[in-house]
Amino acid sequence: MNLRKKFVLLFISGCLLTMLFLYWKSNDVTPTTNLHQYSEEQLLYFSDVAFGYPDKIKKWNKKVVVKIVGPCTEDDKIEVLNIIQEISAIIGKDKINFGLKDANVFVYFPNLQQDFEREKRGELNIDVNGFTFSTFSFSGYLKEVKLYISPALKGKWRNRILRHEFCHALGLSGHSKKAYKEEHLLGVRLYDSLEAAEKDELTAATIPEPDKMAIKLLYDNSIPNGLKRSKFVEYLEKHKQKERKLN
Known about the structure:
single chain, alpha/beta, 7 strands
């Protein structure tokens, strides 16, 4: 083997070792953000929904560019644009937009339920009305997301599920099993009465405050990609202990 080949192999090996070290290091970082702006319920909700398989933070490190693939209604397109506007108000206008070039989030609105079911069988083995399929870079960041919405969904419920899936597309890949009286896109909604449920159905869908705060915290610079849920929960406990001492 000549000297040039040896140099190339050493260089490649060095790059791989550096990347592996950085990836390992990112999995063991404790968040340092100021948590006083978040309520205890918001922090617990974040710990439920922000850590998908395998219980680690997975988010974007580049601009999110959304593209609708295939036919869609004007209402669906307007709703996607509304959601992008809602998200940009949370993470910044320079972090997400709608475009045809360099897209990395692809939104599909199948016309037929059988088309949706065919895609769903390819990705999932559970009964859902919307889903995302994500791929990741070598360093563990989100690289591409495909988002599908069932044609069976109508009205506010369709728009709510669309926002639910956009939360997943941003990296909030988990769900909360808790029941909430206020709307949480990734949790269970609990209504006091049938009248309250009917009234809610008449209001326009928007990203609720708990999910806004979860997205905001996810994209705080002090929450690193690859952060383990156990590290975040450990940090929360220390934060609560500190709060008790102050009070």
